[in-house]
Amino acid sequence: MWLGKISSSKPLYDDMKIYDNSRSETVIRALSDFGIEESFANAAARFEEHYHYKIGPSAVVRSTKATAQKAIEFLEDKFSDVEPVQEDVAVEKILVELDGCEIRTAILSNVEGSTEITPVYNNPKKTKTIKWRDVRLSFARPLDSESKLFAGKMDSYPNVVSQLHSAAVLSGMTPKTQVIGIADGGIGLSEELKKQFPTMQFILDKSHLRDHLYDTAQELGIKEKKRPAWVNLRLKDISAGKIDTVLKELVDENEKNPNERRSRLIGYINRFYESLNYEELRSKGYPIGSGEIESAHKSIPQKRLKIPGASWSPSSINPMLSLRILRANGWWEEFWNNRMEELLAA
Questions:
Q1: Count of CB atoms within 10 A of residue 276's CB?
Q2: Which of 106, 239, 261, 269 could join 278 in a cystine, given CB atoms 3.0 to 4.6 angstroms apart?
């Protein structure tokens, strides 16, 4: 049955009560909500689709990045104002993992000695320098739970691990908690983890040891078809606790035929000697690979910061990552409620 003309609904006007180009916290939240999930252009299109109001990508950029700066402050407060855990809520064992991924950054700068100007605004032409920067993500969770708290930023290991330590305390860690830490062999990483987590059993991610063995086999000139057998035999012995046997073999071979890459492998195994007994570690219920944090990289920083063609100003990475972490940790509502309380108190 034809009901006649039905007036269109415009939620931005009808529900959010926004008129004359003004912008409320509700609108800013909606723009930020879309802006941290996909490109700013797509976010603007989604906003128009949902609220029947056309807005440009630049408006999404401004709102999302301004919100992201507030997200950094929220996370810093959250991780710096951590209360000691009460014994009745402490966990016996806690798992922490940390890993990095590279994000593409672009920096614009004036071309030295150039007199070229842009055709529209007559500004000096700039050159774009592309650089991949290491973004570090971590999580803490009770060993017998799937509930995680994430932390992360583009920063040094001491600062990143400090954030992770706070996440672990918020997850129930006390000085008596057994900490199981998994990471790769990044220079200084395991040392910093052990420094800030004195009770840690550090585990070198098994796949990274395998990669080192394959690299060594290649440098030694072992034919490609024979490399898996060479690698798997030594990996099996190391996993079974026969680390001294593997080391002796490598050292004896190196004395007869010195090789720099084999020497590096010997040093690598010695450095992580207490972190390679994979069969024993697995028997205790500990994971021996960093698959969880690698998967989290795909869903937290990479899903937004590594979309095709994206380049970021280095100063934008930590704010945007903070927003992604807020959502992953389930702190999204708390963040916006705090913002509203601040506005009402002003």
A1: 21
A2: 239
Per domain, the residue ranges of the chain are: 11-77+330-345, 86-205, 206-288
Written as one string, the DSSP assignment of 261-301 is: HHHHHHHHHHHTGGG--HHHHHHTT---S-HHHHHHHHHTH
What is the average pLDDT score of the chain? Answer: 90
pLDDT band of residue 151 (cuts 50, 70, 90) is very high
Query: In this structure, is the dihedral angle defined by the CA atoms of residues 113, 118, 119 and 121, taken in order, positive or negative?
Result: negative
Dist. CA 111–CA 127, nearest whole Å? 6
Residue type at position 257: N
Q: Tell the CATH topology of 86-205.
A: Nucleotidyltransferase; domain 5 (3.30.420)
Q: Quick one: which H or E segment has residue 70?
A: helix 57-80
326: tokens are 């807020």
CB–CB of 197/160 below 8 Å? no
B/e letters for 20-47, b = 16+ CB within 10 Å, e = fewer, are eeeeeebbbbbbbbbbbeebbeebbbbb
pTM (predicted TM-score): 0.87
